[in-house]
């Protein structure tokens, strides 16, 4: 998990490459989107706005074909994360959803407005609590700009 304290730090660190430019395009479009509606940019990025607190997750979620980027606009959230190899698989990977689920425990970290978090695919994560939450979730393909199976 990579945590950048500010959107500006994210912009400075991740400015090169089509996938990062598409992340910036999605973030710049936040004023035009509705909560809980998925939007896409090309075939390499989908994103949605979360406006309201989320229920805690019982299981850790992991991905393989996409990685998640969460940009916190308001509120706070606590995440627990761990390397997948340190967790117990509960539900196997499904290609259709790009998800796999695990149980176990990991490290916790508070996240707050302004933070940009990149969840890497060798890890799984779950959210344990949130307050006053407003964030955008970007799902970015691990391939450079297209799906290999197309």
Helix content: 10-25%
- Give me the secondary-structure category: mainly beta
Compute the separation of the termini in Å. Answer: 29 Å
Show unreliable segments.
145-150
Q: What is the CA-atom radius of gyration, in angstroms?
A: 15 Å
General form:
globular
Summarize the main sheet. 7 strands, antiparallel
% residues in beta strands = over 45%
Classify the oligomer: single chain
Q: What is the overall pLDDT average?
A: 91
Total number of beta strands: 10
Helical run tally? 2
State the order of secondary-structure elements, H for helix, E for strand. EHHEEEEEEEEE
Please, could you describe this protein's structure?
The chain has 150 residues and is mainly beta. It has helices at residues 7-13, 18-28; strands at 2-4, 39-41, 45-51, 60-62, 66-83, 88-94, 99-103, 107-112, 116-119, 123-141. A hairpin with a 4-residue loop joins β6 and β7.
Descriptive terms for the model:
150 residues, mainly beta, seven-stranded antiparallel β-sheet, 2 helices, 10 strands, 12% helix, 50% strand, globular, disordered C terminus
Quick overview:
It contains two helices and ten strands; from the N terminus they run βααβββββββββ. The protein is mainly beta and 150 residues long.
Q: What's the structural blueprint in terms of helices and strands?
A:
Blueprint: E1 2-4, H1 7-13, H2 18-28, E2 39-41, E3 45-51, E4 60-62, E5 66-83, E6 88-94, E7 99-103, E8 107-112, E9 116-119, E10 123-141
Antiparallel strand pairs: 1-9, 2-3, 3-10, 4-7, 5-8, 5-9, 5-10, 6-7
């Amino acid at each position: 998990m990579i945590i950048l304290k500010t959107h500006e730090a994210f912009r400075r660190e991740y400015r090169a490459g089509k996938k990062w430019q598409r992340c910036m395009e999605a973030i710049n479009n936040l004023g035009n989107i509705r909560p809980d509606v998925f939007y896409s940019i090309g075939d390499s990025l989908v994103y949605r706005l979360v406006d309201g607190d989320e229920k805690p997750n019982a299981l850790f979620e992991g991905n393989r074909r996409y990685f998640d980027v969460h940009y916190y606009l308001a509120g706070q959230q606590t995440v627990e994360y761990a390397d997948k190899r340190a967790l117990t698989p509960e539900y196997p990977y499904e290609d259709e959803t790009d998800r796999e689920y695990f149980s176990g425990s990991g490290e916790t970290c508070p996240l707050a407005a302004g933070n940009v978090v990149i969840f890497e695919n060798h890890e799984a994560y779950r959210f344990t609590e949130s307050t006053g939450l407003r964030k955008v979730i970007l799902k970015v393909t691990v391939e450079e700009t297209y799906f290999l199976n197309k």
